[in-house]
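Example record

The entry below shows one chain as it appears in the dataset: sequence first, then structure tokens.
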Amino acid sequence: MQLEIWSDIACPWCAVGRAHLQRALDGWEHRDTVEVTWRSFELDPSAPATLDGPYVDRLAAKYGTSAAEAQAMIDRMVATGAAAGVDLRFDRIRPGNTFDAHRVVHLAAERGMQDAVKQRMLTGYLTEGEAIGTADAVRRLGVDAGLDATEVDDVLAGDRYADAVREDEATARALGISGVPFFVLDRRLGVSGAQPPEVLRSALDQARDAAGALVTVGGPSGEHEHDGGACADGSCAL
């Protein structure tokens, strides 16, 4: 089974979704048949390399709320992450453009290390406060996950995998994906948002028997409503 996951590194719900997926796959009898591929999705392709200022202030401005209301939103997201085993440190987060990070994740796919590198990027950004839009941070995280330093440097110095990132994003548009994480199983069944492990496990079972056009589970357009958060339009619904 081909399991493709569209996500952005600058997306806390994507880290929660990955944790939920791991729990869904644990003990699933067909686990060894699942091949996971991470697909690129930039929430804000126009973002600069770095963004200054507290996350709570940016969130308040984005939603037109007070700082206290924005902090309450953050606190709810932190609690959700903790329940999934994800340590979200919004007091450390240093946002920025994720295009280069996605390119390095594509390098990792060619080296059979994509999931490890993706997870290292998520942890580095969401927990450790790495400035994900800078070449130094992307290099450090990629090498820390096991990639060859020279290869990472070569990618960052040029435009290698740029077309691969754009192709992933074009495919997302073609499939109607507007928010992440978004899980696609065999291009037959789609799951929108960081759905609970039991929903993802059910989707895995359904995908084994599904046929025809892409059907989406979760989210406002899905046939079932579940509490699965997602990031879209350059922001996250916390």
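Notes for this example: Residues 220-226 have pLDDT under 50 and may be disordered. The first strand starts at residue 2 and ends at 7.
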